[in-house]
Design brief:
Length: 120
């Protein structure tokens, strides 16, 4: 399920990214220990995903490690992207960004109920 999500993410395929998301899914993006984005609900997440895909001409998450727990799966990822538009933080269109981070997926009834993306 996670591999399908990451493949869909890399292909900008929002519908496939949402296939296993619960209707009441919660999403958080965390950078420097601060929550920079918090979304509740599949429809709100879909809207954010559709808007975000316009920010990049290319993007790739590569899973480097899995960690398993009873209630969640954590993946470590290397992330690269080519920025398509000037961003408010000063990054310009055409620049490449590279990050390392992790994503934590919480599950219930074979659906993703929470996803946290954490930049390191």
């Amino acid at each position: 399920m996670i591999q399908r999500y990451v493949k869909a993410y890399n292909n900008f395929d929002v519908d496939k990214m949402l296939v296993n998301m619960a209707d009441d899914v919660k999403f958080e993006n965390i950078a420097d220990g601060l929550v920079t984005l918090s979304i509740e609900g599949k429809e709100a997440l879909k809207e954010q995903m559709e808007n975000a895909r316009n920010l990049f001409s290319e993007r790739t998450q590569t899973i480097t490690q899995y960690s398993y727990s009873k209630d969640y799966v954590e993946i470590r990822v290397n992330y690269t992207a080519m920025v398509a538009v000037d961003l408010p933080n000063g990054i310009k269109a055409g620049e490449q960004i590279e990050l390392k981070g992790k994503s934590i997926f919480l599950f219930r009834d074979n659906q993703i109920i929470e996803l946290k993306d954490i930049a390191e």
